[in-house]
Structures are given as structure tokens and as C-alpha cells.
Amino acid sequence: MSKKQILLINDMAGYGKVATAAMLPILSYLGHPVYNLPTALVSNTLDYGKFNILETTDYIRGVFPVWKELGFSFDAIATGFIASEQQARLVSGYCREQAARGTQIFVDPIMGDEGKLYNGVTPATISSMREMIGVADLTFPNYTEACYLTDSTFKAAGVSIDEAEELLNGLRKIGTKSALITSILVDGTPSVAGYNHKTDKFFSLPYTEIPVHFPGTGDIFSAILIGHLLDDELLIPSTQKAMDGVYKLIDLNRDNKDKNRGIPLEKYLGIL
């Protein structure tokens, strides 16, 4: 079976395993031809507190016409960090065109965590991410992001299974076909909650939390998930494999001294 080609539209960090730098090695290891379009060049992971960033909207504006002229196409597109409203319009427009030709669209609406937006994320960013989700086959915000996207109140103590389903329905109203919400406490248990449009069923998968923070774990989750979905595996087992992979990688690296640079993936690809 020939492997499906995927385009990653996300930022690229010079130092640290996050975003494209985390997703590309995993998807390549899983056998998928991977292409990339950086939305921003970032000196290092933001966890260091100091960084330099160059957003690439003008570059992207020039890329799409060239690719169109050359006849490039992809089986799937995965989007992550979007640097501006202008960039969101360009990228969502391209994704909409490609989706009309059968390309699968995966959207990770990177905006915040633990009840707060990341530094530099504005209400305009939320609007941009809604635009991206409007063209998605599958979106997978964390709980914080799902609350901002659906104008819902963030509850530090978590939600009931009914409230999780309400959040998922809120994401569906924005336009995505299927949805996951990661890092959500459902009835007191850390979980990934989901809705699969192919089966018209909701689900919730519990996991054990390791109290250690690494940047890039969401990107690792996305890459494993998408890699298995592109092999035509079902949503629930693909989600479980992604959860298990992230758990193993965090567990194996929990004693690393410099956690700010993320998990050194190349060393551990064989366990995925």
C-alpha cells in the first residue's frame, strides 16, 4: 500500500522539538512522505522565556501560486500555529481548495493551555482558528482552546461527560466533521474526549497523567494520531496509540535536565 503524502503547515523552531520539528520525524518514521510550509521561524521553544520569531505570511502568499502552477497536491494537510489573521485567510483558503479535491484537513488550533492564552495570542487569533476549523475533517484542541473557541467557561475542576459532549458539539457547529479535546478532566479523570462523525458517536478515553511538562507533547500526539489515521485506522484506536506514545515518551524522559527543548525524539522513534 502506498503511503499518503502530508503537508505540515506549522512553525519551525531552530532549537527544540516542537511543532514541525517534532511532527516531521514521527510522520517520516511512520512511512509518510512529509512536506512542510513554515508559518513562522522561531529561534527556540518559547519555554526558555527569550526568543526571536519571524512570521512568513509574505512567503506563504508567494508559495501557493507556484505550487498551483507546478500541480502539487497532497493527501492530507495538518495545520498548527497560525501567525496572523491574514495568514489564516491564506491558509484556510488553500485548505478549502484542496479539501474540494479530496485532501483531508487536520487542524490543531494552537492558542493556549491551563485556562490561559499563550503570550501574543489575541481575540483575532481565536477568530482565525475558527476559520481554520471551518474547513477541518478533524480538529484536536486542548480543553483550554476548546473553551475559547466555543465561548465556554473554563472549569479548573473539569467537566461532566455531558459538558464534554456540549463542547464537542460547539466545535462541530464551527464546521469540523470530527473532533477531539485533549487534556480535559472528565468526571475527575484526565481524558481525551471525542466525536467521530463516521460513526456519529461520542467517546472518552482516560489516561494517567505524569506531572512533568515538556513543550511539543501536543505535536507528538498530533503526529502519531495523523500517521495512523492516514493508514486508514479508526479514530478511537489511533487516538489511543497517540496517547500511549506520548505517555511512553514522557515517562522515558521525565528526568531530563533541560526539559525546555522538548523530547529528543530520534532516540525513541522505535517505541512508537
How is this structure best summarized?
With about 270 residues, the protein is of the alpha/beta class. The chain is built from eight helices and eleven strands. The strands form two sheets. Strands 3-2-1-4-5-8-9-10-11 form a nine-stranded mixed sheet, sandwiched between helices. The chain has a two-stranded antiparallel ribbon with strand order 6-7.
Helix and strand arrangement:
Elements: E1 6-13, H1 20-29, E2 34-42, E3 53-55, H2 57-70, E4 76-79, H3 85-99, E5 104-107, E6 112-113, E7 116-117, H4 123-133, E8 138-139, H5 143-150, H6 161-174, E9 178-186, E10 189-196, E11 201-206, H7 217-229, H8 235-253
Parallel strand pairs: 1-2, 1-4, 4-5, 5-8, 8-9
Antiparallel strand pairs: 2-3, 6-7, 9-10, 10-11
Helix pairs in contact: 1-7, 2-3, 3-4, 5-6, 7-8
What low-confidence regions span 5 or more consecutive residues with pLDDT below 50? none
Total count of domains: 1
CATH top-level class: Alpha Beta
Helix content: 25-40%
Q: What is CATH's topology name?
A: UDP-N-acetylmuramoyl-L-alanine:D-glutamate ligase
Q: Radius of gyration, rounded?
A: 17 Å
What is the percentage of strand-forming residues? 15-25%
Distance between the first and last residues' Cα: 20 Å
Structural class: alpha/beta
Describe the sheet with the most strands: 9 strands, mixed
The CATH level-2 architecture is identified as: 3-Layer(aba) Sandwich
How would you spell out the order of helices and strands? EHEEHEHEEEHEHHEEEHH
